[in-house]
Each structure stands twice: as C-alpha cells, then as structure tokens.
C-alpha cells in the first residue's frame, strides 16, 4: 500500500491513498484524516486503507483523481520524533580515511544515531530554502521507517512488527557546521536543516523480496543537476532498521509516528557512486589528495528515486531545488 | 496567565486555564482544545484565554474545579521539537575542571544545544520509568520557553516576541551514556530519556520583573528524597533565551510549539547547591578528590519548584519518583 499527504493549507495536510503506479490517488478522509492519526490507530485503519488501495489499483475507487507530486507534502509533514542513524559503515570509514578523523568508538557494534528536527519536513518537490552557500550545502539520500508505539526496551526481534511504513529521505546537511558540532559532542543542530521526503510512504509488503532482514535491497538513484551521481544499494546497511529501533528505544518508548533514518546510503564498491557530496569529496581526497567537487549552489537541483526490479518507482521521486532563504526582516516567512 | 493540560486518555490531553494560586482550574475547550492548537493560533486565542483567566482568578469562572497536579500531563504532552541548551556556563566549567574534559570550542560565544526527544513528555507527578540504576540516573532542573512560529534567521532581538510561554523542566539524564555519546559527536540519545514538566506553563508577564532580558530571575529549588539539594538562580544564565532561539533558528524555521530549554541551572556561588547530581559530584571531585554522591536509585524522589518573591509557586511543583521500567516482554507498555 502507498500513502501520501496532500497539502491543504493546514500543518498536517490530508491523507491520501496512492495507486501502485503513482498515477492516481483518492482521499482517505472517510477512514482517517491525517498520516499521524493513521499511524496512531494503525490496527484499526489499516484494513480499510488497504481495501481502498485495492479498489484504486483496480480502477474502482470513487472520486479518484490524478496524483500530482507537486501538491504532495512529506507523507508525514511533521513528526514528534526523527532519529537518524549512520548505518552504512562504508560512509563513516571513507570519511575517517579521507579526513583523518579518529574512529568513532564502538563504530561496528553500536549504531551511531542522532536526534533530528522533525517539526518541519519538506515535500518531494518543495524548494529547500537555506541561508548561505558558504555553509556547504549537501544532500543525503536515505531510507527510513515509521513505527507505531514502541515500548522501552524493545528488542531488535520485537522491532520488526512495529515497522508500518518505509520512506525515502533527502537529509539536507550543511557540512560547514558538521565537524564543529561533532567536536562539541552535543550533536547536529545547525548542520541539519529540514529534511525532505519522497511523495509516498509504502508498507513493507509493497517491496516484496526487496524488503528483507530490516533493509531495503534496492539501489537509491541520485542525480545532481540532471547528471548521475550514484546508485548505492540499501541492502548493504550494516545495522538493520530493527537494530536501529532497538537502539533508539533502549531507554525510552517511541511514540507512534517516530521516523528513523538509515543515514546516507553507501556501498563498498565505489563505482556505484555516492548518495551525498561529502562522500564523493572523501573519495576524491583518497584518490587525488584533495576534494574536487564543490557543494551545492543556489539553483542546483537534486533528484532521488528508487526503482524496483521491474523499473517502477517505489516511493516516487524527490526533485528539489536549493534556493536562498527569504531574509527574516519583516518576518513574513511562516509555514 | 497559567495554562495546563489535563490527562483525558488521549495523547494530547485537554487544555485548562489554572488560577494564579494554582488552586482552581477551568476547561478551555470552548476556546481551543489543546496546548498545541493554542500555540499554533496564539494571536487568535490569547485574548479569550486571558479573559477566562481573569474570571477564574476573580472566582467568576463557570464550571471551575479544583486543580489537581496529579491529573496534569506536561503542559504540552508531546512537542514537534525540543532543543535544550547548556546556557549556564558555570555548569560546563565545573564539569571540565572536575573531570579533566577538554573545553568545548567557542564555549563562551556560541550556545551549546542538542536536539532532544519530544514525543513523550512526562507530567509533573508521573513516575519516571527507567531500565537500570546502573545507567547513572540523574535529574536536571531547568527553565524552558515555548515559541510560536519562528522564521529562519530570526535574530535574538526578534526572538523576544516569539516567546509565548515559560516552563519548568526536569531533564532526566543517564550519566553512564553521556560521555560515550558526547565522544561520538552525534549528541545525546540513550542519555536523554523522556523529560518531565511542571504542572503549568505561564506567560512571561506572570513573572513581573523576574522575567528580564530573556531570563527567569528566580531560584529553582530542588530537593532529592525530601532533602535540600540546591536553589540556583535562573538570572545567571550566560546566554538568554533570545540567543538560544536565534541559535536554533539559524538554518531552519521553528514550528509553533517548539520548546527550548536552558540546560541545568547553575550558579558560580556553590553555596546555593546544584540542580543536578552530576554537578554536585563535580564539586565533590574538586573539593575531595573524588565524587561522594551516588546517582538516583529506584524509589528515589525529586522535587523541583520555583517560588516568586512573595513565596508563591510559579509553575507548580515537579514531584516525581524514579521506578524500574516494565520489561518489554508482552509489550503491554503503551502510552
């Protein structure tokens, strides 16, 4: 099943069911009005949502309409929690090797994870407003999951049943702040502006055999300014999403609608490219002795999409442009 | 004006207006049903809420009832964003001196702040369930503010007008994880379980002259197991809440209902005691060469309260007991 959220002038938008081919959609409001309420009441609403999805795919849904990703918000436009892992160890290893960073303790046995901002997720075609090109603007292609209520102390085995939806993320990052904030030990704040999400969240069954052992075994295709940048595969994730959930829930429960990210997708085979510029720069550093690629400029675009084995888009595409943020003076910029 | 939230079996509870003396309350549902909706529509609802507050204080509010803090949730039971500063530099200086930690870069000029979990705030009399005494269970007495929508790039000067409510927090911390997570650079995750809040949030005018230059100029009184622990004053905050907001909003807008904390209240005069055990241990280390105090045990209680110049409680009291978390088996623990 594929679910999305249409912008409607409210902060939470309105929940829609989207057809498997991403062409048609239908309002879910007769079942549940928003994604947050859907995940809070998943057991109750899932059967009716699935019935509507089946009708939509069969061309039998009343009041169906063409799905327009430009009108889509993030599937969950704001969340009560967003924790982002760094579960592809190849990425961390490259960063260490290229820039001489000392290895993170327990890197291979304890997942790295930061608490991120979740009050303002961007839609798949929204511009990304940022204050300065000097901040080292980067994209990060990631997978993510959404859970229902997870109790404290949930094990990795128990976690599997709490994963209700899979998502695809552009975790926008400002690299000028990253080393500074890491050195302070308090984690990322200015380094991590609002994240963006692909048009639809999908139930795990939608991936068939490509969802396996808590990982998305599909390549994430990234283009920067219309040119291929990478297509690393999510199957190489060193920690599964089950393990990431258990890590996050070790000392607290996780509220329904918590979103947990994989960290930038990264593969040992460098011929598949990267899902973020920082990693390409690390590879350049290792190969050429210095980074060659610049970070993003205002006006640059990024495209991220996941195709299944038959070449069909799973989550729809992220297609975004980075733009200069409106100055604060006058304070006209409100959500 | 004082506002609170009563538990009612839903995740967001129901908004109430509480009398200045904290004895009486009245439902605000005819104006706005929840705190989140109130802060999103502050300009529209504030006048009616203030009128109801005036009527309640004058004994003229229809359907008023006795206010019971045991029935209170956190004023905002879950938030889309919680950023916690470390704005009392004395605390950081003591930790550095006692434990030989290298100074954080730009400590005195750039606020330290981490992104915290906000999906599950605890009420003022709720037990604090935690998995293990071995994790170094600590309390942290703090002040906090709640803002309406803050645009990206908001300056400290502009920030003042966005502060709608002041709050009092127990930022529960697990000290066994703190140095490990700081060293990794990704910030606090397992080290920071759910935070707890005093019964009411208050508008800044409620403090009179004690709210000045973006700081609460009142002592925060802390008792551990019924014994005085400290009463450091919020006026010694090195960065104002205005500066903390500007720091958080540097690269992104902040959604209405974002809560920003001061970090543990700490004063240069050690005779006023501390607002967290870690700091007392640091003082013991400096004085005696080793920490003497243990961290909290299951069954321990903490009391935190702020009295105004006339001895009246401003936010009501936090009175909590730390307890062993229900094991996950069977997964019966849901919110």
Automatic annotation (TrEMBL), chains A, B:
Pfam families: FAA_hydro_N_2, FAA_hydrolase. This is Fumarylacetoacetate hydrolase. Residues 1-78 form the Fumarylacetoacetase N-terminal domain. Gene3D superfamilies: Fumarylacetoacetase-like, C-terminal domain. Keywords: Hydrolase. InterPro entries: FAA_hydro_N (IPR041072), Fumarylacetoacetase-like_C (IPR011234), Fumarylacetoacetase_C_sf (IPR036663). GO terms for molecular function: hydrolase activity. The keyword Nucleotide-binding does not apply. Residues 82-322 form the Fumarylacetoacetase-like C-terminal domain.
């Amino acid at each position: 099943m594929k679910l999305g959220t249409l912008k409607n002038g409210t902060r939470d938008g309105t929940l829609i069911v989207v057809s498997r081919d991403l062409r048609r959609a239908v309002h879910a409001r007769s079942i549940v009005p928003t994604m947050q309420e859907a995940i809070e009441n998943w057991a109750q609403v899932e059967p009716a949502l699935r019935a509507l999805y089946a009708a939509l795919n069969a061309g039998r849904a009343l009041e169906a309409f063409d799905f327009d990703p430009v009108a889509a918000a993030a599937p969950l436009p704001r969340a009560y929690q967003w924790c982002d892992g760094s579960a592809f160890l190849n990425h961390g290893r490259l960063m260490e090797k290229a820039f001489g960073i000392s290895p993170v303790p327990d890197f291979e046995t304890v997942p790295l994870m930061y608490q991120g901002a979740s009050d303002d997720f961007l839609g798949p075609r929204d511009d990304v407003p940022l204050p300065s090109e000097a901040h080292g603007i980067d994209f990060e292609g990631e997978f993510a999951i959404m859970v229902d209520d997870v109790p404290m102390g949930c094990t990795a085995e128990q976690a599997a049943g709490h994963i209700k939806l899979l998502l695809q993320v552009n975790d926008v990052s400002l690299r000028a702040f990253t080393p500074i904030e890491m050195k302070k030990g308090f984690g990322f704040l200015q380094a991590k502006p609002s994240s963006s999400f692909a048009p639809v969240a999908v139930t795990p069954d939608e991936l068939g055999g490509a969802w396996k052992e808590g990982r998305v075994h599909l390549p994430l295709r990234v283009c920067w300014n219309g040119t291929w940048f990478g297509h690393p595969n999510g199957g190489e994730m060193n920690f599964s999403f089950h393990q990431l959930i258990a890590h996050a829930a070790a000392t607290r429960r996780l509220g329904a609608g918590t979103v947990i990210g994989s960290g930038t997708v990264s593969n040992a085979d460098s011929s598949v490219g990267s899902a973020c510029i920082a990693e390409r720069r690390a590879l350049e550093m290792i190969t050429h002795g210095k980074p060659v690629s610049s970070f993003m400029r205002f006006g640059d675009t990024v495209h991220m999409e996941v195709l299944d084995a038959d070449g069909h888009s799973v989550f729809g595409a992220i297609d975004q442009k980075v733009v200069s943020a409106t100055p604060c003076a006058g304070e006209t910029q409100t959500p």
